[in-house]
## 1
Amino acid sequence: MGYEKRIVTNEINGDSYIYVKHPSGLDILIWKKEGFTTTEALFGTKYGSVNNRFKTVDDDEYIEVPEGIAHFLEHKLFENEDTDVFELYAQTGAMGNAYTSFAETVYLFNCSENYDKSLRILLSFVQKPYFTDESVAKEQGIIGQEIKMGLDNPERKSFFNLLNCLYVNHPIKIDIAGTVESIAKITPELLYKCYNTFYNLHNMCLAIAGNLDVDEVLKICDEELIPVADYKLDASVVEEPEEIACDEMCEEFPVGMPIFNIGYKCKAYSGYELLKNEYIASIMMQLVVGNTSKLYNDLTDEGLINSNFGFEVFWGSDSMFCLIISGESKDPKTVRRRIEEEIERLKRDGLDKDEFEIIRKSRYGSLVKSFDSVDTCAEYLLNAQFVGVDVFDMQKALQEVTFDEVQNGLYKFFDKSKSAISIIVPSRKQKGECDA
Amino acid sequence: MNIDYERREIARGVYLNIIKDKRFNSNFASVLFITPFSKEEASARAFVPGILSVSNANYPTRAELNRKLLSLYNASLNTSSVVSGNNYITGYYASCIIDKNAFDGENVTEETVRLMVDCILNPKVVDGVFDPKEFAILKQELIDTIDTEINNKRGYALTLANEIIFRDEPFSVRYYGTKAMAQALTNERAYEIYLDTLHNADIEITIAGDGIEASAKFLEETFSELERPEDNNIIFYDKSPLKAEVETVDVKGDVQQTRLVMAYKGDSKNVYVDKLMTAMFGGVATSKLFMNVREKLQLCYSCSANYKEYNNTLIVESGIDAKNLDVAIKEIDKQLKAIAQGDFTDEELYNTKLMISGAFKSNYDSLFALGMWYDVQHRRGTCYTPDEVIEIFHSITREQIMECAGTYKLDTVFTLSPEV
C-alpha cells in the first residue's frame, strides 16, 4: 500500500519516530523504543466535551447535542454487539482503557506481549459502534454514579467554577461528564449521529510507541482500517467574547480549609504558536509564582499558601487559553491581591534574566526525562498531531523562547480585567459574596 | 530480560542496591528508612521528611534549594511517609537527567545524589534543632493536611475504615497521626525522631541508571559510616486478626454518594496466589466485581479489590447510591464466595494471569519501578525478577485460587453516607 511517510528525528539524542498518512485518511505515528518491554497505543478522535455543536457537509444547520455525550459515547463503544471489549483485551493480556477530555476522546491499551493482537482489537472495536435503548439506559446508571463521585470533589468544583467565571459562552466551562439530567437525554440515535460525525478516520489519529515492529503495525492498519469519506466536519465552538463572565465565584463545600483557583483569560492559540506561547506563559508563571520566586516564598513564610499551591497554563482546546493558579489558603482573596501586586511590581522592575535561563534549562531537563516513559511518548505523539506539530517541536519551541518574550508575557497574559477567582469555603458559611 | 542488579550490606542494616541500565535518559536514587514505631510518634515521623526536603546546611532556604534543583536540569527531590506492616517508612527519592544529556558535561547525577544526601544528613540546624521558622511553617502544614483530609471523600472513607479494620494494630494509624499529636509536636521532639531514624532505622539505598558508579561509591562511603544499632525488630508480615463478629459502622457526612469499604481477612500462605485471586475478584477490568457489581447490576462506577499483603487483608471499595447499599454488599460477598466455590472458567484464570504478567513486566520499563520492585522482593525474603514471578503466576492452579478465596472471611463493613 502506498503511504505518505516521514521520519521525524530529535536532533539532540537521535530519537526518531515515523509519521504515516494512511490511505484510509488516518494519521499514524509510530515510535519504536529500542530495549523497552511495553507498548502503548492510543486511537483518538478530535472529539471532546466542547464539541456539543457541529455540522457536516450534509447538514444545513448546526446540531446541538446534550452535554456529556462525548464521554458517554466513549463508555458505550466498549460494548460490542457480541462481546465486551475488556474480555477481548483479557485474552491478549493488555490493559485497555479510554478517556474523554475537553477536545478529544482516546482509546488505549498498554501491554508487554501480543501488541499485534491488541492493536487489532483496538482498531476494530472503535470502528464498530453498537448502541441500543437498553445499553444506553444501563450506562446512564453507571455514568450517573461517576458524575455523583465528581460532585464530591471540591477541587474539581473549584476548577469548573473558575472556568464559569472566565468564559461566557465557551463550552469549556461544562463538566466533561455532563449532568445526570443532560445524560438522561442521550439516545442511541444521538450517539450514532455523533459517532458518524466525529469518528471519521480523517478526524482521528493512531499513536503507538514502545516495543513494536513498524511494518507489522502498518500491515495491521491496512487490514483493519475501513476507509470512509471525509465529511468536512465543522465543529467550531460558539463565539466567545474577550471579557469574562464574572470575577468571583464562591461556593460552600465540606472542606477543611478554603480552596481557590485564580485564572487569567488569554487569547487562544493554535499549532506551533500554541506550543511556543505555552512555554512563554509557563516560564513566566514560574518566575512570578514558582517555588524560587520571591512571592511564593513570602506567601509560604506568612502561612498564606502551602505545598498544594501550583500553577498551570491551561488550554482544554485550541479555542481557549488561560493561566490558572490554585491551592489552599485561609485567605484566598489576599493571595489574589498579592499576586496582582507582584505582577505590577514585575511589570515595573522587570524579571530576572539569570533565573529565566535556569528555568529554561530546567524545562529542557523535564522534557528529556519524560521521553523515558513509553506511555508519555505515545501521548506526546497523539497530542502533537492533534495540535498540528511534531513531538520534537517542543524542544525547538523551548529553545526559541527569549527573555524578552517572557518579559512581554507579563502584559500579554496578565490582564487584571480578565482575571477571576473561584473559592470553595468550608460548609456552614453564607453563600454568595464570601468572607474567605 | 536481564537486569544488571547488585545488592550488598554496607553496614549493619544498611543495604546498597545498584541497578545498571543504559536505556534511559534519566537516573534515579532513593534512600528508605525503615523503623518500628508507636502510634504516638506518627506525626513526628511524618514531619521529618518534609523539613529535610526544603533546605539543608548548604542551601539554607527553600528558594536556594529549589534554584539548585532547577539548575540541575530540574532534578527532582521527593519524599514519602507510609505505615507499612508494623513499620514506619520514610523515603527520599531523587531523579535527574543522565550526564551525557547535559549541555556542558556537568556531573548532574553525582551532584543530585550529593544534594539529596546533604538534605538527609546535613540539615539546617539552629541551636540543636531544626530551623525554627521552617519548623513552624511545616508544623502548620501538617495540621492543615489533617484538617483537609475530608476534602478527598474516597481517601477519607478509607482512612476511617482503616481505623476500624485494623483497630489496635500499627496499620490503623494515619501516617501523619492525629491533629492533637501534630499540634503537640515540638521542634525538639521532631529532631530527636530525626536522629533516632538516622541511627536506628534499617536503610535501603538504591541507585539506578547509567554512569552511576561515582554516585554509588559516594553513597557507600557515606552511609557505611553511620552509627548502627544492634538488630532491629523490623516486622512486615503481621496477620490482622479476624473479628469474632462482622463489625458494621456507618459514619454520616456531607457527601453525595455513599462510600463503601469492606474488609475480608484471610489465611493464605502464598502472596502470589493472593495477588492473583485479588485480581480475579476485583483487580482488573474483567474481574468478578467489575463485571457483576458495575456492568451487570449497574450499581456503581467503580468497585475494586486491593490486597494488603502484610496484613492478609482484602479491601473492597466502591461508591454507590445509599439505596443500593444492601444489594451491593450482598453481591460483593457473593462474588468472593463464587471464586471459593470454583465458579470461574479456566479461561478467566488464564486471562487474569496474562494481564497480571503484562503489568509485572512493565516494571522493566521504569528505573523507579525496578528499584521499588527489588525493595518489595527483599521484604518477602526473595530476589525474583519480574519474569520469574510471572512464571510463578502461571504455575498457580484453580484449586489454589479456590482455597485462597475460601480463607477470606468478612471482617468489617464501613460506610461514609449522606446525612439524611
## 2
Amino acid sequence: MAYLLALAGNQNCGKTTLFNCLTGSNQHVGNFPGVTVEKKEGTVLKQKDLTLVDLPGIYSLSPYTSEEVVTRDFLLKEHPRAIINIVDATNLERNLYLSLQLMELGIPIVIALNMMDEVLASGNVVDYDKLSKHLGVPVVPISASKNEGISELMHHVRETVQSNTPPAKLDFCRGAVHRAIHSISHIIEDHAQEAGYPVRFAATKLVEGDEPMRLALCIHETDQHIIDHIVTDMEKELGTDREAALADMRYNYIEEICKTCVIKHQESREQVRSEKIDRILTHKIWGIPLFLGIMLLVFWLTFTVIGAPLQDLLETGIEAVTDLLSQTLAATHVSPWLQALLIDGVFAGVGSVLSFMPIIVVLFFFLSLLEDSGYMARVAFVMDKLLRKIGLSGRSFVPMLIGFGCSVPAIMATRTLSSERDRKMTIILTPFMSCSAKLPIYGMITLAFFPQHGALVMISLYITGIVVAILSGLLLKTTLFRGNPMPFVMELPAYRLPSARSVLLHMWEKAKDFLHKAFTVIFLATIIIWFLQSYDWTFHMVENSADSILASIGSLIAPVFTPLGFHDWRASTALITGLTAKETVVSTLTVLSGASGSAELSSILSTIFTPLSAFSFLAFTILYMPCVAAFAASRRELGSLRSALGAAAYQTGAAYIVSFLIYQIGSFFL
Amino acid sequence: MTLDQLHPGGSGIIETVGGEGALRRRLLDMGLTPGTAICVRKVAPMGDPLELFLRGYVLTLRKDDAAKITLKEVVQ
C-alpha cells in the first residue's frame, strides 16, 4: 500500500531543505493544474511506499492567493494520509499559526521542529515534549540543514501513517467565537460531510467569511441567514470583525502555549548576525550600489570568467563530435539529405542551444546562493519602490536584470516569486530586456548604418526595451492583471549559510529542465526551420537558400513589414530564423545577401534598409517574441501553451506598434 | 497615530488593523493582531518600505499599508 504525504510550512522555514533531505534526488517537478504554482513530488529515501508532495510555502489557509488555495485544495481533495508540518523553532509564534489551521483539517499530522540547533546554540529552550502534549500531535526536533533528527521524524511519520489517528480537536476558541463555531458546525454538518470537508474546518472558515467555502458547501439561503446572524452577534459581543476575531484567538492561544514551552533568554545568534549584516546590505546609501555591485559581479563571473570558457569548451566539444560524425557519414556514403539533417539541422541547432548550458548552470549556482542565504528578500526590500508603480514588487527585479543576459534563465528564475500574478507579469515583461544574443545584430546594423553613433544607438535600444516594459506593465496592471496585487507583506528571514545539497540540487534541476527543453521544443523547432531553409516546395534540397520554402514564406509575409520600413524578403526571413536564436538573424542576413566580408555586407544591407528602417528593424528585433528556448521556458513557467502563445503574440504586437511609430514618425521628420 | 508615522527605532502596540480583503487578512495572518508589540527598525534606501520587528521576526511592509494600522502606547 502506497501512501501520499504532504509537506507544509511557512516560507523560509527550511521546507525545501527538508524535502531534499527526505527524497534525495528522486524528485519530479511540475505545476499544480491550472496555475503556475510549482509542485514537487518525490519518493521518500529507503521508504518506497511513501510519496511526498512539497506544498508551496504559505503562512495561512486564507482564500486569497493561488498558493494558499492550491494547498487547501490539495489537502482537502487529494486526501493525503498525513501532513508533515515543518515549523521554524526560532520563530515559533508565527509558524504555529499555520499549524493550528492545518490541524483543523482532521488529517494526521506530525510537526517537524526545524532549526533546533540554532535555538540551542543561542542558549534558548523549546520544550518540544510539552508542545506535543499541548497540541496533541507528535513534535520532533530536527535540523534539516545538518540532517539531524530526520530518522526520528520519519519514525513518527511511519507510526502516524500506520495508526491513522487524526489530531485531537483543539479548543483554542473561547466565549463568543467558540459559541459561533459550535452553532455553525451544527447547521452545516450534513453539507460538510456531503462535500467531503471536515466540519470543524468548514465552520471556522465560515466564521471567517471564507467565500470559496460558502460556495463549496451549497448552503441554503435560510441557513445562510442564520449563519450571518450568528456571526453578527459574535462581532457585536467582541467589538471586532470576524476575520480579526479568529486571527486574534489563534495568536492568543499560541502565545499561551509559547509561554509554557519556550524560554527565550536572548535573540538568536542568527538574528543578531543578520541585523549586523543588514546594517551594510540594506544601508540607506550603500544598499543600492552594493546590490548593483553584487549583480555585476555575478554577471561578470557567469558570462565572462566561468561561463564563457566553459561555453567555448562545450562548443569545441560539440564541433569535434559534429566533425567526426560528418566524416563518418561521408565515408559511409549516407544519403546527403540525412547528412544535412543531422549535421546542419540537429547538431547545429541543438548544439548552439546546448552551449548555453554552462551559463545557465553557473548563473543558477549564484542565484540559489543569493536566494537561500536570504539576500533576495533584501533585494525586494531595497528595490520595491522602483517596481511598485508598474504593479510589481521588488522581487521581480532580479529576473528582469538577468533578462539583460539571457531571457531563458531569467524566466526560469521567476519561480521564486511568491505571487502567481507577479510571476506571470514578470515572465511577459522580461523578454523586453535586451538579451546578450541580440548584441551581434546591433553590431552588424550599427556598423553598416551608424558607425559614428554606435553607442548612442545601442543605449537607445536598451532604453526602448525598458520603456516598452514599463508601459506594458502599466497596461497589464489595468487590464489582464486588474484587481488587487498580492500585498507586499514579506518576511525578511535571517541570513543563513546555504546548504551545498540544496544549491547543487537546484542547479541540477535547472540543468535538467533546460536539457529537457533543448531536446523537445527546441529540437523540433530547429529541425522545422532547417527543413524550411533547405528545401523548396517540391521537396528538393536547394543549393541557394533564396529558393527555399522559408524564403518564399519570407517574401509572402514581407509586405506586412512595409509600414515598418523594411519590405525586403531577406529581412522578414531573418526575423523568422531569428526565432531559433536571435543571433541567427545575422547569419541569415549574411547568407541571403550573398556577401563575402563585412564591407560588402554593409553595402548590400544599405540596399535592404535605409538608416531609419534599419533602426526600426532593430527595435523590432529587440521587442518581438523571444527565441524558442525562451518561449519553451515561458511555456513551462506559465503552465500552458495558450498563455505562452498569448505572451508571444503580445510581444510581437508591441514590437510591431513601436517599429511602426518609429518609422512613420521618423519619416515625417527625415 | 499610525504605524507609518513611527520613526526608525520607535515602537508601539497595535490598536486596530484597517484595510480590507487580501491585504487585511495577510496582515492578521502575519501576526499583526491588536495588542501585538511592534517596532520600526529601518526604512528602505528609497524611503519605502519599512522594516519592522514583531513576534520575534522581521517583516517588511509598504508605508501605504502601514498607514492602515493604528498604534497605542507609542515610544519614539
